[in-house]
Fold:
Amino acid sequence: MQLRTARLCLDCEEVHAAMRCPSCASETFTYISRWVPAPERRRVPRPVTSPEAEMYRGLIAKEPAIPANGRRMLKRGVVGLTALGVAGWLFRKRPERRAG
Structure:
């Protein structure tokens, strides 16, 4: 019996590999590998992280979304657009009023 398939019956504490305990016919079990780590069978172990996990960590990081230089440019752009809007509002032609 392999450690990966060994099951411990939670009712009678029998070690088995079947879906039901051969002693008490219970279906309540847990894998023994939960407490006893099984050695890795692969020649090359699995990578600890994946590129997708790193990308997700980058998305949820608590860093500002806009860098400091970008934030400064955004402020200047907003100030500039506001100044242009106010200047356009002040220098627009007003329609002449006709005396009726």
Q: What stands out?
A: The first strand starts at residue 7 and ends at 9.
